[in-house]
Amino acid sequence: MKVLEFVNTHAPSLRPTATLQDAVDKLDLYQVTLLPVVDEGGAVVGVLTETQVFNQLFSAWLETHRTTGETLRLEGFRPTARTLAQAPIQYSPVPVLDEHDPIEVAVAQMVQHGYDTLPVIGEGRFIGTIRLIDCCQALIGDTE
Hints:
By secondary structure, the chain is α+β, with helices and mostly antiparallel strands. The protein has 6 helices and 5 strands; from the N terminus they run αββαααβαββα. The protein has one domain (3-140): CBS-domain (Roll), CATH 3.10.580.
């Protein structure tokens, strides 16, 4: 079984110039936990997860929590987060799957790097994503 058979070709993505607000909006609208970051030529340059978005928006709360051990109300950090929402995204490099890779390669990459979703390319351009649950369906589904 190949990745191409299970890729979500309607997966959302972001441009490297997107803001954190853009990321929040897409993560919420599409109900995904990861957004590939794709340049104008269609190459995947990284990913942004919902955890990374939270960490970027509420870095002051996280730092205070880490240093004091207190669980402070997030409400007091909203003004800073609203300002940071207009900042450009900061994304991470990520392994990229080729549409012709076997499902086992997708699973191995997700496990090795700790992602539940990875971007997929075809002919060097972003074509969609594959999730770990898609791989589970592929591996336990009917093969008849």
